[in-house]
Design goal:
- There is one protein chain.
- This protein is an alpha/beta fold.
- Helices cover 43% and strands 17% of the residues.
- It has twelve helices and eleven strands.
- The N and C termini lie close together (10 Å).
């Protein structure tokens, strides 16, 4: 068995992926390899490159992250590599798919392709989407969840006990990430703690929500106890170091399918306030998505909790166990 996890490489000159799809593929490959499955990550820029790689290194399974390859090219790949099982995985729930004008068209065309060939499947990385697709269109949609690879050792962190409070709300700038509500919650937490606040956000990937960052600046600029840190886009190892620097993360997204940032926080012992869209996170981490005060209230509890990091770790391990079982079903092992 040879499993290839292919994603669109927007920065072909980088050896280490700096985008979520590459990070997700790497984590999945590491976990599959740890169980004895030969898995590899293939950054590609075109269907032609995928075809070239398959001719050089045949694979039993090819899982393509996100619907971006034209359906006709997928059909040609299925016809040429008849013994390879192909799947295209939707990397987001419905809410985020609306940001890509071609995503739903490619999903529907992919479902038609599944009906007309034996070696192609549409898939989703959350069961909410896979179940909806099956119910809405009457065609099965395979569940291939994110797997977040965890090392054996995990950092022990002290609870916040004073000084500068560092709160991060990371990710590409999209309206559905709910950044302004996070900023409002961070400000309330800092005021409750009478603390100097560093509010960290990602910069360098504005995906149709430029006014959001302007609104955050308007909320925080000029406050003597607040510093807005616009952290440039980093490679994943660099970003993990940044996450380790935080006391708390805020990820109250309106829609999600997994949320790698929250898992990065778990791996570094940093809890996150999340919305119920991030299903795998502990219930004690969740707050109403449209209530900055409630998000702040949960954040204050997590800052004071000695149990929050291990609760997050237990929740992520439980998710990984279920996710690996789903992948094993797809791979037939």
């Amino acid at each position: 068995m040879q499993v290839a996890l292919a994603y669109k490489n927007f920065a072909a000159n980088r050896a280490i992926s700096h985008i979520g799809l590459g990070v997700t593929a790497l984590n999945t490959a590491k976990t599959l390899r740890s169980t004895g499955i030969n898995a590899d990550v293939w950054p590609i820029v075109s269907p032609a490159e995928l075809r070239t790689r398959l001719r050089a290194s045949p694979a039993s399974h090819v899982v393509i992250s996100a619907p971006w390859i034209p359906t006709n090219d997928l059909a040609l790949l299925c016809a040429e590599f008849k013994d390879t099982q192909f799947a295209v995985t939707c990397h987001s729930n419905l809410g985020f798919l609306q940001a890509d004008p071609s995503a739903m068209r490619l999903v529907r065309e992919g479902l038609d392709l599944r009906r007309t060939t034996w070696n192609f499947q549409m898939a989703a990385n959350c069961d909410r989407l896979s179940n909806w697709v099956h119910t809405a269109y009457g065609t099965p949609c395979t569940h291939l969840p994110n797997i977040y690879h965890l090392d054996d050792s995990h950092p022990k962190r002290e609870r916040y006990s004073g000084g500068t409070l560092r709160i991060g709300a990371f990710g590409a700038t999209r309206a559905l990430k709910n950044l302004l509500t996070s900023a409002g919650a961070a400000l309330e937490i800092a005021n409750a703690k009478r603390a100097t606040l560093e509010f960290w956000i990602s910069s360098g990937r504005n995906e149709g929500a430029g006014a959001v960052v302007d609104a955050v600046r308007q909320m925080l600029n000029g406050l003597p106890h607040v510093k807005l840190v616009e952290n440039g886009w980093q490679t994943w190892p660099q970003f993990r170091q940044t996450v380790r620097h935080m006391h708390l993360l805020l990820q109250p997204s309106y829609t999600e399918s997994f949320n790698v940032v929250t898992a990065d926080g778990v791996a570094e012992g940093v809890p996150s306030v999340v919305s119920d869209a991030i299903e795998w996170a502990p219930d004690s981490w969740k707050a109403p998505v449209d209530d900055a005060h409630a998000i702040a209230r949960v954040g204050l509890k997590l800052l004071a909790s000695r149990w929050a990091p291990r609760q997050g770790m237990a929740a992520l391990k439980a998710h990984n166990k279920k996710a690996l079982a789903a992948w094993n079903t797809f791979l037939g092992v």
